[in-house]
């Protein structure tokens, strides 16, 4: 049984302007000890998917339908009380901005111990020990001294380490990392990514890595989900997604980023602008920007189809290709 | 290739900010400390470095948005010193800012934003001419001319950046400082804007100083790249050369830290992960600023800042121990 199973998740925000369908029928599963990457641009629904799992949506947001099963237990509709046992204990989350996720008026030690005492039956002294141990685990120098310091005395990278320490203090089964290194510098990003990789191996937790940076995905993830306008375009192993993309959006993304071998020739951008979630088209959400769009793309969404056992994509182009190939083969047989 | 003339020359540029560190005390923050370089006409010089390294300050001081503490700025063969020089220089130079949200006035229409430089320098005879110029500029950056009377908030990030670029081009400049112009944009939009920078350079013969922290983007767009660390320039070379054969230990770790969008290569890539954080520029280490994080640091590094010297043709680096770390 997979550790986390998300099935046909729909999350919407009800705004004065209308219903914004941020997540639109997302399904995926995550096995123990795996690293899953969710990539997409702003407004693709990658963060909202994560917040739906944690049920920390803003007031206007609501899970409309679908199921989220953690270790066989249904999370949708278990209520705030039930979620308290899950959040922090079983599934933890770290955010993009380590500057605003810590309370500036309490010491680092206080905030770490608070999290530990809330979730485990430790007393103050034990919690203190655990907090120091966690700081040491994430390579914070002089953890005893650092415990008494305030967030402003920490650099961005150090704060993100503290956030990771806090998230891992209760040994969760899943760590959700929402753009954990976007606000950090390149050399600090390298430190944090390496730390996460080492901790993942050491503690054996599963990670959901949410990012827009294809480089981070390539480095960290076993499996990748590509999202656009609230739905999953494509899902597969990292190698399949990078070397054998089967959705026009993924292909476009890969073409539009400069690579190490780029010889200065023009990039091939995806034309147009991201979709307005208030006015979603009937067919494939990417069709208005897709160069290869066909009539059927505008009429209806393509269901997710197996490319091989490690790869699924929702693009009519694959149907077209299979059809053309199929005809050729049958022609040869005849 | 023929010897190209230098459009912008910077000699020993220093920019110190004074920071209050006590009631009556202030300490100079050496944001840019003794930086020299030249940009050739029609080329793109990429300037990279991490936050706080002074790359943005270089860009701003270069346009005299900050008064340089010391050093010389030469533009088109003339040193920029007096007020008149600066005014003349600003007509031929422009800047594109990082944040397309805060760099556009929300109370002005797009046409007023784009025409503002023209208004300031009074470069049109009639309202009709002003309008024509605005429409031509909007056309040039791929904006729909029907949108001239709209306000900035009605546009997406990529379109706003196009407005900012149109404003920069209004004076028909020969030199543009681009300060992180694509880092706030989504990947698919980023490529559109990068291509536009390329096209505009070809059409108008622009010279760019392209400041960014995304090394793959900088490598793509630049002819040469300069690397800064804590206010000093540590290495400068041809874009490809600096990626393939970085000399300075900081450049090496920077290049190896770039997450490559290629799983197989990412697995093989041997990252040089630096320990520690970037020191505060208020308490910069003595001698070479990188020595506190450098795996090859020696006593000589603490004693004096190494000279920024030409190691091979066109490849400059500032390190005492180049032989040992290569």
Task: Give a brief outline of the structure.
Chain A has 334 residues and is α/β, with parallel strands linked by helices.
How would you describe the overall organization of this protein?
The complex is a heterodimer of chains A (334) and B (326). By secondary structure, chain A is of the alpha/beta class. Chain A contains 12 helices and 12 strands. In chain A, the strands form 2 sheets. An 8-stranded mixed β-sheet of chain A has the order 6-7-8-3-9-10-12-11, with helices on both faces. In chain A, strands 2-1-4-5 form a 4-stranded antiparallel β-sheet. In chain A, helix 4 packs across helix 6 (156-168). Residues 330-334 of chain A have low confidence and may be disordered. With 326 residues, chain B is α/β, with parallel strands linked by helices. In chain B, helix 3 (110-121) packs across helix 4. In chain B, the strands form 2 sheets. An 8-stranded mixed β-sheet of chain B has the order 6-7-8-3-9-10-12-11, with helices on both faces. Chain B has a 4-stranded antiparallel β-sheet with strand order 2-1-4-5. The mean pLDDT of chain B is 90. Chain B folds into 2 domains: 6-92 and 173-325, Rossmann fold; 106-171, no CATH class.
């Amino acid at each position: 049984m997979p550790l986390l199973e998300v099935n046909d998740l729909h999350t919407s925000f009800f705004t004065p302007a209308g219903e914004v369908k941020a997540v639109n029928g997302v399904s995926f599963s995550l096995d123990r000890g795996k690293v899953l990457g969710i990539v997409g641009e702003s407004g693709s629904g990658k963060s909202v998917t994560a917040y739906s799992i944690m049920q920390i949506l803003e007031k206007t947001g609501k899970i409309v339908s679908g199921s989220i099963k953690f270790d066989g237990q249904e999370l949708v509709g278990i209520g705030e009380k039930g979620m308290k046992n899950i959040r922090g204990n079983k599934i933890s989350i770290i955010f993009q901005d380590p500057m605003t996720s810590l309370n500036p008026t309490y010491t680092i030690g206080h905030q770490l111990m608070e999290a530990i005492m809330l979730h485990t039956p430790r007393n103050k002294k034990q919690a203190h020990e655990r907090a120091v141990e966690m700081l040491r685990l994430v390579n914070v120098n002089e953890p005893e001294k650092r415990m008494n310091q305030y967030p402003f005395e920490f650099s961005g990278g150090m704060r993100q380490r503290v956030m990771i320490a806090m998230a891992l203090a209760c040994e969760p089964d899943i760590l959700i990392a929402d753009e954990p290194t976007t606000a950090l510098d390149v050399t600090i990003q390298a430190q944090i990514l390496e730390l996460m990789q080492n901790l993942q191996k050491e503690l054996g937790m599963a990670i959901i890595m949410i990012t827009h940076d294809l480089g981070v995905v390539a480095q960290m993830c076993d499996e990748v989900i590509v999202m656009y306008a609230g739905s999953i375009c494509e899902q597969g192993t990292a190698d399949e997604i990078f070397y054998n993309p089967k959705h026009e959006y993924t292909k476009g993304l890969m073409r539009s980023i400069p690579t190490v071998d780029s010889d200065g020739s023009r990039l091939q951008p995806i034309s147009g602008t991201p979709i307005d979630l208030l006015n979603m088209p009937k067919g494939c959400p990417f069709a208005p920007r897709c160069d290869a769009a066909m009539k059927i793309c505008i009429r209806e969404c393509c269901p997710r189809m197996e490319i091989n056992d490690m790869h699924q994509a929702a693009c009519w182009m694959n149907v077209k290709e299979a059809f053309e190939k199929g005809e050729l083969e049958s022609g040869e047989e005849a | 290739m023929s010897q190209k003339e230098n459009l912008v020359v910077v000699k020993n540029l220093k920019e110190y900010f004074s920071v209050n560190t006590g009631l009556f005390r202030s300490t100079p923050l050496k944001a840019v400390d003794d930086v020299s370089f030249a940009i050739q006409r029609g080329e793109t010089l990429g300037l990279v470095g991490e936050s706080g390294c002074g790359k943005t300050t270089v860009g701003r001081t270069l346009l005299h948005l900050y008064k340089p503490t010391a050093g010389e700025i030469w533009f088109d063969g003339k040193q920029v010193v007096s007020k008149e020089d600066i005014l003349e220089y600003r007509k031929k130079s422009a800047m594109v800012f990082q944040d397309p949200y805060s760099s556009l006035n929300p109370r002005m229409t797009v046409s007023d934003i784009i025409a503002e430089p023209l208004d300031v320098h009074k470069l049109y005879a009639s309202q009709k001419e002003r309008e024509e110029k605005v429409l031509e500029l909007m056309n040039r950056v791929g904006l729909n001319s029907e949108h001239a009377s709209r306000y900035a908030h009605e546009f997406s990030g990529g379109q706003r950046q196009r407005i900012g670029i149109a404003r920069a081009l209004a004076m028909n400049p020969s030199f543009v400082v681009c300060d992180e112009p694509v880092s706030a944009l989504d990947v698919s939009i980023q490529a559109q804007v990068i291509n536009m920078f390329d096209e505009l350079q070809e059409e108008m013969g622009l010279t760019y100083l392209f400041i960014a922290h995304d090394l793959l983007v900088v490598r793509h767009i630049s002819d040469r790249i300069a690397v800064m660390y804590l206010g000093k320039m540590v290495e400068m070379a041809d874009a490809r050369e600096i990626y393939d054969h970085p000399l300075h230990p900081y450049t090496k770790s920077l290049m190896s830290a770039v997450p490559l969008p290629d799983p197989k290569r990412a697995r093989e890539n041997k990252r040089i992960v630096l320990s520690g954080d970037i020191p505060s520029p208020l308490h910069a280490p003595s001698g070479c600023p990188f020595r506190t994080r450098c795996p090859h640091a020696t006593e000589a590094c603490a004693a004096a800042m190494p000279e920024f010297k030409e190691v091979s043709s066109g490849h400059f680096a500032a390190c005492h121990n180049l032989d040992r770390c290569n």
